[in-house]
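task queued by scheduler; priority normal; single chain, no ligands, no partner chains; default sampling; output format set to structure tokens
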Amino acid sequence: GMTAQNTAVSNAELNHQFLFRIMSNQSNVAENQKVVLDLNGQTVTCDFARAYSVHYPNSSLTITDTVGGGVIKNINQKADLGGIVLVRTDAELNLLAGTLDASASKCVNGNGGGAVFVNTGATFHMQGGTVKGAAECSGNGAAVAIAKNGYMRLTDGQIIGGKASAAKGGSIISVNSGAKFLLASGKVYGNKGSMIYVKGEAQLLGGNVGGASIKVRLDDAAAKALLKGVTIANDVASATSVRVDKGELTIAGGHIDASEMNLEDRANGLAVYVQPGATLNMEGGVVTGGTSWSFLKPEEVLDENGDTAGHFEMQTEPVVRVIYCKTN
């Protein structure tokens, strides 16, 4: 059966060796173990490819912080596959409070997961606290990468991104093929790269997504995303809110706000951008853009020249001011 360890970090034990010890004398949470780590307001600094891993099936690590201000920080310049935590197959990570901070590290091996890597069949449930992505990341997921059959749900807290490689479609949260991501509440915010990069399945049912680049990007024929209840704020003029290169996007609720978009930059400053061959289902919600485009009919779609390219059949009557589709 599961065994529980409840451990609080003390002033005398603020180093990675302490973390290793509570993980059964190595950097792993062992099989069938349920470990609760209370950061106790302290800062633990590591300089390794990853701080530790939840290694075996049916094991779990829960991180909390009863005092406040607690941080696990990785400063390694070659971090990979979960700079703070690697959650292996059939294991579970729960973040209740505290900060997982990879912002001083670099994730350079192309695998992503600068702070957390959710492996095949693993689960990451974020119920509070903060995750900070790597300063640089050569793969997807400067903060979190989710592998095939992995699952992450964000019900509270915030994920803050670093930089990611644009050449690899860089992202703050990478939902790989076959992976699933659920945003129920909380905040995702970054300064470069796509905030949420989807090749698998994403449901954005609440919370807020914002930042300086593409907020949500679908980039696989099998990719699916449902927007319902989420607020996506385009707070930088040249940034696109939602981009669908491949796959299927359904907007059934929530608000995509591109009111700060640059009307002259139709390639980058857009509310919803849909490439040829991709699918957009508009069933509800509100999409708002620049007021100088507000004369458009709710269902009207523009091609890259600003001409009408088609119409969407809407099951409800959302206010859609700016949707931009490239034609074949």
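post-processing summary
- The CA atoms of residues 180 and 201 lie 5 Å apart.
- Residues 11-27, 290-300, 308-322, 324-328 have pLDDT under 50 and may be disordered.
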